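Hello,

Our lab assistant flagged a job as stuck in the queue for most of the afternoon. It eventually completed. Since we weren't sure the result was trustworthy after the delay, we are filing this so someone can double-check. Below is the sequence as submitted and the structure that was eventually returned. Let us know if re-running is recommended.
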Amino acid sequence: MKRNCVYIIGLLLASTVARAEDPAQTPQRPHIEKKGTIACDLVEAHYFVWKGRLLREEWARTHYKSDRVYPESHIQIRDAETGEPIAAFARDHAFGTIYVEDDTAYVIATYDKPGPKRRSQVNMFVSKDLKNWQVRNVIDDPNFLICNTSLVKAGDEYVLMFEIGRPNVTSWTARFATSRDLKTWDILPEEYIYGREYMAAPHCLKYCEGYFYNFYVRDQFGYSVWVARSRDLKTWEESPFNPVLRADEDDRRPAPRIQFTERERKRIATAVNINNSDIDIFGYQGKTLISYSWGNQHGVEHLAEAEYKGPLDEFLTGWFPVR
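-- returned structure --
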């Protein structure tokens, strides 16, 4: 009897090891397919749906040349599939992001206020037709140096993640603010933070099944996109599959639907590429659309798109397999 028990236990252990080594039984990282480059010198692009139409909000930097409307840095919106320009606004603003609810578009963008010491102001542009925009201030604190922002709704509260270079941080870091009405904002205390002691430049915040997902950039593997999640914005868990995106030759593939000039094609083929950053993630028609930039992380960047062939909630939770 004792010998039989040992034999049975041995079979069970062998079966467990076999399942653990079987790729079909082992959790796999979400597969991202890079689809190719769609623009030169654009970064910070975000997909959204407006009246059934897939659009994209973009930051037109001062050295972006194609079809720009204003000489200053500004925000623009275009049809994501045809490229048709829809709107241009928020002059002198940068690092835009967009949130849509109840037929209203909310674009959050950063304005560098002039003065002896660089300081930032975050403003919100509100529209019901993408033509007429009202402006509200969100953050105006001289202590902050702010770049990227990202807005989500969690239950009955809105959460804004914003990227700071100061105060009291080593490098680019995520801080957070909350609102009940998208008008009055409370900046959370300093313990609500991610990346105080190292570079964790936040670009995209999502909320799913009680977790906040922060997609951010670290200066590892060049510059690469990582993800961490939290229930309370204070205690964070890193994905075991990090990094999410890193630079490779697939970034250079021109998207087939885009008509690049010969000069642009040569640039795409030869530009320095040490960077995947500025990620945005959007669920659309059962798929997860991804925009990101690649380049040298010092001003020569390209906007590219990628895709996960599954819904957004599956994409988010897939970075944190059940143990």
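-- support follow-up --
The delay was a queue issue, not a problem with the job. The result is valid. The radius of gyration is 22 Å. The longest helix spans residues 2-21.
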